[in-house]
Each structure stands twice: as C-alpha cells, then as structure tokens.
Amino acid sequence: MRTALLIDIGSTYTKTTLLDIDRARVLNNSQAYTTVETDINIGLKKALKDINGWERAEYKLACSSAAGGLKIIAIGLVPELTAEAARRAALGAGSRVLKTYSYQLTEKDIVEIIELKADIILLAGGTDGGNTEVIIDNAQKIAESSLSQAIIVAGNRVASERIKKIFKRAGKEFYIKENVMPNLEELNIKPTQELIRKIFLDKIIYARGLNRVNEFIDGIIMPTPAAVLKAAEVLADGCEEEEGLGKLMVIDIGGATTDVHSVANGKPEKAGVSWRGLEEPYAKRTVEGDLGMRYSVLSLAETIGEEKVRLELNKKGYNISADKYKEMIKHRRSETEFIPNNEKERVLDNIFGRNASCIAVSRHVGHLKTVYTPLGPSYIQEGKDLTKIKYLIGTGGIIVKNENPAFILEGALYSNQDNSELLAPIGPVILKDSKYLMAAAGLLAELEPKVSIKIMKNYLEKI
User: Fold this and answer.
1) CA end-to-end span of the chain, whole Å?
2) pLDDT over 70 for what percent of the chain?
3) Helices 133-144 and 107-116, interaxial angle, to 10°?
4) Residues in CB range of 327: below 8 A, 6 or more apart
5) What tens digit of pLDDT does each residue of 415-434 get?
6) How confident is the model over 66-91, as pLDDT tens digits?
7) Parallel, antiparallel, or unpaired for β 96-101 and 71-75?
8) CATH of 71-200, one of 3.40.50.300, 3.90.170.10, 3.30.365.10, 3.40.50.360
C-alpha cells in the first residue's frame, strides 16, 4: 500500500494526516500542540505517536505557518495599482503582509519597516516604461538602512539596472524579477510568487529552526496558506484525469486571522456591466488580520461592535452585562487555547465566527456601482463577481468542531450582507472540511493531483 504523511505545522497545533494513495482514503490523523518556541520536533513526535506506520510513507511532506508565518512588506508607487499588485503577489504566495507602503518612503517609514522585522521586502513601483524616480529613490533609502532581509525587486524594468547597482554597492541580498504590473491594471504576479516560495524554502525555514523536522520527514515545502490555496485551485480546476468542481470559495477562520480564497475569474455575470480597476488574480487570497477568534479577538469584537454582539446574544436568550461581555473577550485573548465549556460561551464564539465570515467575505468580493448618465443608469464592477460560485467550503476550528457550522458560513452569503452592492455568493453548496484536509490536500496536489482531488471529494462534508 502506498501512503503519504502530510503535516501542517501551525502556530497552535501540528496536524498530521496519513493517506492511502491508491484508494484515496484517510488512514489516520492526529494533532498535538506546536512546540516551535522550544524544539519543534517535540510537538511533531507527539502527533506522530498516534500514526501507525508513518515511517513507511512514500511522501512525508509538511507546510508551516508557525513562528508567525511568512511575513512580507509590500512597497509600490500608487496605492491602488503597483502597491496593490505587490500586496496581492505576497498574499497569493501564502504570506502575511505586515504593511503596504506607497509613493516615496520617508525616514519614518524606514524606521517602521526595520521595527516590523519582515522576512522579505517586496519592492515594486511603476509600469514598464513608466515612473522610475520613486522606485529608485526607495531602493536607495533601503540600501542606506540597516535592513538585512532579502529584497525582491519587481517593478519598472527600466529601473532594474540602476537598482541592481545600488543594492550591490550596499551589499544587500536582492533578487530582480519581472514587474508585478508591467502595464496599467495588468497583473503579473506568478514569477514573484515562485521566487517568494523559493526564498521561504532556501532560507526562512532554516532561520526559524523549522528545518529540524527534516530529521523525520522529507521537508517543509510551502507556507500553510499557500497549501490551502493550492488545494482550492486544484479542486476547482481538476486535472487531466479527474474533473474539478468549478468555481469555489474557501473560508478559513483561525485564531489570528480569517483567510478567504476564491478560484474564479470573477468577470461580470450580468449583461451591461463593465469592469473597472486592477485585474483580479484567478486564484485569490485575502487575509484579515483583525478577524481572529483568539489572538485577534479584541479587534474582531471592536470591528463588529459591542452593541451588535450583545443584541445577537440577547436574541439567543443571553442578556449579559457590559462588564461580563468584556471579561469574556479578554479571557479569549489571554487563553488562546480556550474551548467554550458552556452554551453561553459557545453562542458567543458562534456570533464572532459568523461575523468574521461575513466581514472577511465582504472585503474579498467586488461590488457593483450604479452610475447615472444622460442615457440612463450604467453599471460598473470593481473586484470579483462571486455571486455564482458553486461551492463554499469552510475550514478552521470554529467551523470544523461546530455542531452548526452552517450558521457560521451562511454569514458570508449575499443575503446576510448589509451592503446590497456586494457581489457575495448567493446560493452555493456549503461544504465543511471536517477532517482538516485542505492543507494536506494542497501538499499532495504538488505530486499526486488526481488523488488530492479525490480525497477532497471523498471527505468534504455537505452541510
């Protein structure tokens, strides 16, 4: 029997899955607390203890978001254009974008970038043949700083030679790549994403001590968010030997962030609608760092608003005081492993999860604007139209372990959005990643795409 051992080393838990490749079945899975702060192998060994026969697996692969994940600073010229293109390139590569900067960097910006301690600086700016002054000036300021991270230059190609000389003189580690936006509103982010992944594999996992797991497995091959996006892409599109499901969206609600992945071109679904703005990635990922169930619960609660949460609690029969409400939130932030132990706590988590789902999707999808002209109204779409996606898939603890996961995921639907102009999903089939397989399937898809798709079809549970 051919088997594959697939591991997701997360910030909180290390999850392991052993698969039967020939039958596309899950043989076993387990999880243990991640011990990256001491010795990452302690947690891994604990998780592997419950997986019989893992040593004989044909593939032993891992992804990781431990130790803060892959962190990137994105820099561009215009916020809505090259800066946004750089941000999208970084997000699609599975990273966390700590901050995005536009125009010329100031001294204060450079100090802030040093303090943020990103893994990679992604420097873009200018279309090919467009403005060169800003990206060269920004390169000069970075060269004169104490920044020692890898720098990817993916801006106006006309400026490349000048920037190369600047960074060479300064002794910086840098890589020149194709422009992320060679022409106005045209994206070209794949080459930069491939380079980000290479730097992650060649340098960052060593810098974080994550390579110690190589004692037991073949290695970490990508960041966890990149694995989930890969799984979503292969499940939607299929491969030569296995049909895909078509357009879909994945919502991943975690302790620190809520990630939304969509695989669809997002072009206007209605006649008479014109598209405006930056081209959208076919496989798109957005990350909401203020919408997490534990580490980011304070900002999640603030974003939703106390009045709304307490009103929803009241509708469920729980009339709690303002002081008690604050205490419940603070407890979640201080005890990040907290699992609700009574119905009132479960209801509060569900309200937070449903709103995280709703807000994260409202930021991911596009919207439709009505413009009134002398000839009558016309309609302009900005961002992706995801009203007609076929499947909505939920993953993350609040969904996987919930008795009523539909309540959480339905928050994302168009009917539950406050803004009628949003192009959110209208009536997709809702599926639950009940065995935490999305990241594992993304890893397997690199080598066995047909089996990866079959595994997801077999185990994603309709709700």
Assistant:
1) 32
2) 100
3) 60
4) none
5) 999 999 999 999 999 999 99
6) 777 789 999 999 999 999 999 999 99
7) parallel
8) 3.40.50.360
